[in-house]
Every structure is written in C-alpha cells, then in structure tokens.
Amino acid sequence: MSKRNQTLGEFIIENQTSFKYSSGELSRLINSIRLAAKVVNHEVNKAGLVDIIGAAGDTNIQGEDQQKLDVYANEKFIQTMTKRNIVCGIASEEEDDFVAINSQDENHQNKYVVLIDPLDGSSNIDVNVSVGTIFSIYRRVTPVGTPVTLEDFLQKGSQQVAAGYVVYGTSTMLVYTTGDGVNGFTLNPAIGTFYLSHPNMQFPENGNIYSVNEGNYIHFPVGIKKYIKYCQEEEGDRPYTSRYIGSLVSDFHRNMIKGGIYMYPKSSKNSNGKLRLLYECNPMAFLAEQANGKASDGYTRIMDIVPTELHERAPFICGSKKMVEKAEEFMRDNKG
C-alpha cells in the first residue's frame, strides 16, 4: 500500500509500470491536468470575491448558459494540455467540435485524446456548492502521423486508458484511475501539492443513499418511479436517505465513499437522458467499475455503448453494485 504522505507526482512515477502503454506520455498528461486543476481551483475559490461568477452571455453546444468560470476552466485546461505537447486532440463539453492539436514538429506524433467537462455542476457556482472537472483519456485509433479525426473521440468507454475528476469543495481532490484501481489525492493549498489521501477507493457493495432529482419524478420511466418508491419503503434497511446535490462529481464522490446510487434516467423531457456519454457517463463509469461499482443506462453497461456523435446523451445509473442491479431489475420488469 502506498504511503499516505506520498505526493501525486511521486505516485504517478511509482505506478508507471502498471500502465500497459508507454508510461511517460500518460504521466505527463496526468501532470498537466494536475497543473490546470490547481489554476482552476484558485479561481473557483475566489469566485465570490471578483466578477467571475454568473453567466458569460453565451451558450454552449448543449444550449445551456455558460458560466464565466466554465469558459475560464475550458480555456485553462485546453491551454495547459496544448502547450505541453502531449495530446493530439481535445474534445470539450463547451466546444462545438473537437480541437485538433499538432505536435511541435507538426508530424502528429502524439497518441492521446482527452475529452473533458471543464466545470461540471457550474449552475451551483453562484451558491457556493461544490463543482468539479471530469476527464477521460483514450489512445487515438487513427494512425500516428496523421491528423486526429472524429473517429478518435467516438470510442466505447471500455477503450479508456484513464479517467478521473477534480472536486473543488471544502477540500480539493483529484481522483483518477488508469485501469488499476482508483486513488484520491487532496490538495494542500498552502504549498500547492496533491497528497495521496484516499488510496484504493471502493464503492461499498450496497448503500443507503439514493441521488436523483425527484422534481422530475413525473417524467421518469415506470421502472425508475417504482425503484424510487422501493427506496422510500420502510422495510429492512430502508427507507434509504435521499441526497442530491445536482453536481455529478459531488454526488458520485459522496456515494463512492459512503455507498449509494446516482440516477439521471431518460424522461419524457429528455428522451435520451441528459448527461453526456463521452464527457460525464463514460469517465464516471470507468471509475465506478474500477472501484467495485457499476454503471448502466438501465439495461446496458455504459462502457459498452458505441457513441455516434460528440455530444451524445445517455441515461445514467451508477453506484454501489447491488443498488444498480436492483434498479436495473425494476427497469427490466417495467419496460415501456
């Protein structure tokens, strides 16, 4: 077991051998995400002091108002990864299309693409509730030496080589996996260093928290409605506790530590679900499975879904394995 006073940089170097590809590039990529996260964290934590909160007067590709910090975070992550000459392309929830990046010699030698939600839960910024960054990393599928294409981004979640999130909360944490378990690092703001604080994170197999926006109950499929009623029944260890922050990173993080299920199902308002498959569902599904949890659209493993477009949406049920399996059971038994 790694020492708890180990820094993120030390941990990356020590664990390079567990990564099945060339380790140096991925290490540099994780390090660039760490750097950008520290810069964004600084801005998030002073958001109440300067005119950086509130809407930027533009909308993203999803048709949602962009918060000023959204735009700032997007710029910082793209800028940091571009300058370090590690990735061949970046796709962001805030951008209409992917950003192609040339190697310094313009021979397109870089092997990785990154998909990122720069500031998840940004509608919570103005009320000082935790927000986060979610990232997903793949090896390109088109030949090295050629320009990156859409095909490099439209990969199944099972092809991810790394994924993680940063939660900017009472303490700032970076949590990530390279397919060999999940580890969490807490930022010491006094010296700007992330330290290993949560080694080998695991979802409890069962839990007693359910996280869903019950304000949309009337619009949910019958299976989800019945599962919510099941969670509320007084029987055995139920009723479960309802906890919903409305920030995916925060809800997921709490449930991984305490045991629980997060649900954003399809509805009569959002027939394909609302969360983005590539920027939110896939990276969180990878983390969940690496932490002994499960992620599903109600019927299918999230990471088996073949994406067809960059901003595709999907229903999302994720968390403690037995809770997700029970929700899937309700979905199967109440189709339609």
Question: Could you explain the architecture of this structure?
Answer:
28% of the residues lie in helices and 24% in strands. It is of the alpha+beta class and 336 residues long. Strands 4-3-5-6-7-8-9-10 form an 8-stranded mixed beta sheet, sandwiched between helices. It has a 5-stranded mixed beta sheet with strand order 12-11-13-17-15, with helices on both faces. Helix 2 packs antiparallel against helix 3. The model has no long low-confidence stretch (mean pLDDT 88).
Compact summary:
This protein has 336 residues and is α+β, with helices and mostly antiparallel strands. The protein contains seven helices and 17 strands.
Descriptive key words:
336 residues; alpha+beta; 8-stranded mixed β-sheet; 5-stranded mixed β-sheet; 7 helices; 28% helix
Task: Give a topology summary.
Elements: H1 8-14, H2 23-45, E1 55-59, E2 65-67, H3 68-83, E3 87-92, E4 99-100, E5 112-120, E6 131-139, E7 162-168, E8 172-177, E9 182-188, E10 193-198, E11 209-211, H4 222-232, E12 241-242, H5 248-258, E13 261-264, E14 275-276, H6 277-290, E15 293-296, E16 313-314, E17 316-320, H7 321-333
Parallel strand pairs: 3-5, 11-12, 11-13
Antiparallel strand pairs: 1-2, 3-4, 5-6, 6-7, 7-8, 8-9, 9-10, 13-17, 14-16, 15-17
Helix pairs in contact: 2-3, 4-7
